[in-house]
Design goal:
Organism: Dictyobacter formicarum
Low-confidence stretches: 345-353, 360-364, 388-397
Radius of gyration: 32 Å
Largest sheet: 2 strands, parallel
CATH class of the largest domain: Mainly Alpha
Protein name: Tyr recombinase domain-containing protein
CATH superfamily of the largest domain: Intergrase catalytic core
Shape: extended
Keywords: DNA recombination
CATH architecture of the largest domain: Orthogonal Bundle
Number of domains: 3
Helix content: 40-55%
Number of helices: 14
Distance between the termini: 66 Å
Number of strands: 6
Amino acid sequence: MDTVEIILTRETPLRESTLKVMRAALRDLYLVMKEAGLYAFANPLSSDVLVALKRERERMLANKGAPDQAGIRGETHEQSRRRPTAFLRQHQPQGWKPERRKELADVREGIHKVINAMLDSEVVSAREKAVLHLLQSTGARIHEIAHMTVGGYQNTGMAGQAQVMNKGSYGREVKTIYFAHNPCVQVALNVYFEQMRPLHDPEGCRRLSDVAPDAPLFLTERGTPYSPNVFYWHWYRHYLSWQTLCPVRFSPHDLRHLFVTEYLIKLKQACGAGTASFDAEKYLREREAFGKTIMAWRSIHTIDMYDQSREGEAVFSVLAGYQQDLAQRCYAIGSPQAALPAKPCVVTQATEAEPRPNQEATVVWMHDEETLNWIKSMEQQAGQPWETVGRREERGE
């Protein structure tokens, strides 16, 4: 039986997530009907053969019981999960990759300019400044910062770090964020705790030490728990004033990608990148530790996507310089060999002298074989002579 793959187009009235839910519901419907004896055929949305092959492959995997973090399993659990179990399949989009345009130096510089403008502005509240400082210095997600608790921030007296709820932690504060070496973060937090939070605390607590550990660290003006939606409302209200400082539009989540990108740049420099003493093994080892400890990624391969994106920066940097030259009408006419020492030239009979100022220039056209055959046939039709020398000389007019 042939495989049928469903690929959405612009005209498809359903979203991809909706189609997945419908497909899963139909699969379960056929399964229930078959178990109840109401459907005598095989489940069209599930293949017993493919299910058996998938199980057999997983059984034969090397270190099949190891987690992805160990890096020794034959394939990741995500790759195993994506293996088909039905002949009717839905197109699986490629995994997320960093946007290379935002990896370039001019965009990274522009993002910092916008953030610094917000942090220096008097119209941005102390709460939003504290959140921006944490996003910029820790690489945490916005919901991890917005949902911080007082107990998670106090972290049993460990200054300069806090416990937050990671993605998929089901409300448990299992991830540690670090900001001890940026004093601006603590200053911004102290300003918020001393000047703004007491005004909105529902219990009227003036000091953070008097607040219950499970209470939200950030509060709205109504005394309710802070949320990412509240932050985004304030973000876009202020962002429009300074968006021209950056060549492209960006969101607060891009601060997380910026944090990873610039950390890798610093790490490569510390490992001697660009020199003969570059320690590649040390770089890979510390890069993996960064993804596991600082970013708390489940898969050790997530950091690979950032490194692959970094490798393409040189290509876009050269392209940017070339386009800037075009804008200034500066063209790359010269050849790289022009800078090399001139080699002695042996003049033969086929070598022609350089044209004098008053002499017409000679243009030499080099063609491939197919083009040469076409030119030959056209000139033969016109009754013009043809020279079989592999190149044609034509006077410029």
